Amino acid sequence: MGHFSSYLFMVLAMAGLSTAQAGTLYKWVDSQGRVSYHDQPPPEGSGYRVEEKTVRAAARSVSDQDKPESNVPVILYSAPKCASCDLARLYLDKRKVPYAEKNVESDVKLQEELKEKSGSLSVPTIIVGTKVMKGYLESLLEGELDAAGYPKVKESESAKKAEDKDNPSDSGESGYRPARN
Q: Residues of CATH 3.40.30.10 domain(s) within the chain?
């Protein structure tokens, strides 16, 4: 019986340690701006820019996940007739992320602001806190919003929207969409 209780104590101690530990996540960015996430830093002299984040294994309650808890501002610099800007806007709306949209097409002051913050006049440019992203890449934006603490889209919501999109006849629409010029 003594051996069993020792074994049980060890198992419980190990289980307690795993939930209390925090890990480190390394974000590697190469010279071309490609991002990858690892649990180890890159080798010395590899040329990667690295950001280090501490990740805690604490569980959050369901009610906490429903609230946008981030105090990190999001800004979308855009222009009309910009398909990538439209995609970025749709993704931010889908995630229910509050953001400020700034149309730089004919506003010289906003163009100067964008140049100062990003170094160029490319749209879309998305700023999450201090992170500047030129162009729209959903996986990169998703990672930055996750890191900033914005809630993720619930699976049931995204599945329902996809189902509604697949059945346009239910909504009285033909499903035909003219090409955008």
A: 68-152
